[in-house]
Write a structure and sequence with these properties.
The two termini are about 25 Å apart. By secondary structure, the protein is α+β, with helices and mostly antiparallel strands. Helix content is about 15%, strand content about 35%. About 25% of the residues are buried. The protein has helices at about 5, 35-45, 185-190, 195-200, and strands at about 10, 15-20, 55-60, 70-80, 85-95, 100-110, 135, 145-155, 170-175, 210-215. It contains four helices and ten strands. A hairpin with a 3-residue loop joins strand 4 (about 70-80) and strand 5. The strands form two sheets. The chain has a seven-stranded antiparallel sheet, with helices on one face. A three-stranded antiparallel sheet has the order 7-8-9, with no helix packed on it. Helix 2 (about 35-45) packs antiparallel against helix 3.
Length: about 220
């Protein structure tokens, strides 16, 4: 099995509850990597027996770092329309015998219908991945080993002098070892970029993901 699939494995408990467990392959500096928590939320939506369509939007909030160990994820459909469905989600862990909310989220799933569409933001013109530089963001952090990252531009500055000019990073990214891209893995990738403030300021300051919104 692939470590990603192991990490997002959920067991339906009936109703709106799923049981899961953090995975050491996705460990971050404190708790698991935020992207894998987002992926678990998407997996719960897709696995829920009442889900309408596919996930289109997710806003996930991290009030506190998820602890290593078991968790319960609750995904509740709060409104179902003809084409769209609106959800709330919570990740809960036991702490000193009391349930603690570690993550909250809202989501929209929908049926894809044949309608007008346009793309206002085309893919940037960049060199192909085989010509881009492989990088490892942090040698001591486990989750970065789960990705093959190929940098195009926007590395962490070598000179930390508070003189950063922009916050743009472009890189190619895929699971390591490789696996087919699906919606949970795409959700996980959205948190893979290091904090923008490090590049914009050219200074490594304390930073973490507090809220993340993903649209598809």
């Amino acid at each position: 099995s692939h470590p990603f699939d192991d990490a997002v494995h959920l067991a339906w408990q009936g109703g709106h509850a799923f049981a899961g467990h953090t995975h050491p392959a996705w460990a971050n500096m404190v708790g698991p990597y935020g992207g894998i928590t987002a992926a678990v939320a998407v997996k719960a939506l897709m696995q829920h027996p009442e889900c309408l369509g596919e996930p289109l939007a997710l806003t996930i909030n991290y009030p506190v770092a998820v602890a290593s160990g078991p968790f319960e994820l609750r995904a509740v459909p709060v409104r179902t329309n003809r084409s769209t469905q609106h959800w709330t989600l919570e990740l809960v862990q036991q702490h000193q015998g009391e349930p603690q909310v570690m993550m909250t989220a809202t989501a929209v799933t929908a049926l894809r219908r044949d309608t007008w569409r346009a793309n206002d933001l085309p893919m940037p013109a960049v060199r192909p991945p085989e010509e881009a530089t492989p990088i490892v963001l942090f040698e001591t952090v486990e989750w970065v080993r789960r990705y093959d990252m190929r940098l195009v531009q926007g590395a962490i500055p070598d000179v930390l002098d508070d003189r950063g000019q922009d916050s743009l990073t472009q890189l190619w990214l895929r699971d390591q070892p490789a696996r087919p891209l699906d919606l949970p893995s795409l959700a996980a990738m959205t948190d893979a970029f290091y904090p923008r403030v490090w590049l914009r300021r050219a200074r490594l300051v304390p930073a973490g993901t507090v809220s993340l919104t993903i649209y598809r």
